[in-house]
Amino acid sequence: MKNREIAIVGLGVHPYGKWPDKSMAELGCYAISQALEDAHMKWRDIETMACGAYMWIADQGGVPSLLLGTSISTMMGGTGIPCCNIVNACATGQSILREACLAVASGEHDIALAVGSDKSAGGFFRPQGNDKRYDNDWIRYAMVGETNPGYWAMEMRRRIHDCGTTEEDMAMVKVITSRGGVHNPNARYRKEYTLQEVLESPMVCDPLRLYEICATSDSASAIIVVPMDQAEKYTDKPILIEGLAVGSPSFGDPCIPLTYLSSYPQADVGTLGWSESRNALAAAYKQSGRTPDDINVVELPDNSSWHYLTYMDMILQLPYGGSDQLLRDGYFNVPDGKVPVCPSGGFGAFGEATVAQGLWQCIEVAYQLRGDLGPRQITNNPKVGLAQSYGYAGNNGVCIMSKAF
């Protein structure tokens, strides 16, 4: 980040699960309270806040979801601080953290809060009535009631065809991430799985099995940031935010139909697929001055085994399918790989909580960099970590962090 350097000094997470008796605001207040305690602060110390909001909340639309930050700040105690509500799908977490960091980096504020809270509907996400009416594929998905695993499975099948990814590769993703999830007190599913258990789990949408996809969950996350030169007031283990970027698709991306086009772009435009992810990663690497070789730990959106493998291709700037062999070689192992991936347990252990999850990924990387996680601490003494999130319709967020103590 330019101007003033930014430090993370407070982290808070509400345990993942299904919490029918709690509102999104209540979940958010819990996470904020945890972050305040972590930073040895009081609510009155917070000068500004950015809050994640979303529109797919079951029975909680309108003010409770789209203006969630206002509700949360009122419940915490109406101090009159600025509150910005941001909607950016699954990339909301990095987007609100970016807003908080910019407020501090500019010098406008010294203490900023980012908070995201979510209560997901039961079952998998599915197309809504008015979503993406310009996208012929999406219209077909809506007509037949297709849910997320359906299109994840098509992407996975294509990868199998193009790259030779095997069933064992897909299952091994779950085996590796579950080694961290079993020890994580905030995880919803705390179990370590064997390869055989994953391969014998029910087929949900060929080729993806039950243990190779994630559930949907309720949760909240909160992060407090301050100028680095003030961090020692609040913690003896500050985490420096080196790069923080949000990306959107580029013209010619074959994966994302763009609304302003009257026809699909020709294949020779030269834009690679998942351009929003590549754009956010490139910007974060440039801001931080880092390269993929510098990264010691990664948290990514492993909604399915396909996501895990495909995003590692991009994060490490590998050829399409390049992460498969690294997976087989133990490069991503938890806790003792060269670059452990999703040592938190990932979405497979937590479930998908759209607005909360991007911040939670940053929090899990920060925990590993602090180095005090006991049985779930990775063994490579991480100095630099990366948290990446993908958002519906082509939004992506990336945060690169490092130890500053």
Give a description of the structure:
The protein has about 400 residues and is of the alpha/beta class. The chain has 2 domains: about 5-125 and about 220-235, Peroxisomal Thiolase, Chain A, domain 1, CATH 3.40.47; about 165-205 and about 240-405, Peroxisomal Thiolase, Chain A, domain 1 (3-Layer(aba) Sandwich). Helices cover about 35% and strands about 20% of the residues. The chain has 13 helices and 11 strands. The strands form 2 sheets. A 9-stranded mixed beta sheet has the order 3-2-4-7-1-8-11-10-9, sandwiched between helices. Strand 10 and strand 11 form a beta hairpin. Helix 1 crosses helix 3, helix 4 (about 90-105) packs across helix 13 and helix 7 packs across helix 10. It is globular. Mean pLDDT is about 90; it is low at about 260-270.
Features:
13 helices, alpha/beta, two-stranded antiparallel sheet, Peroxisomal Thiolase, Chain A, domain 1, 9-stranded mixed beta sheet, 2 domains, 405 residues
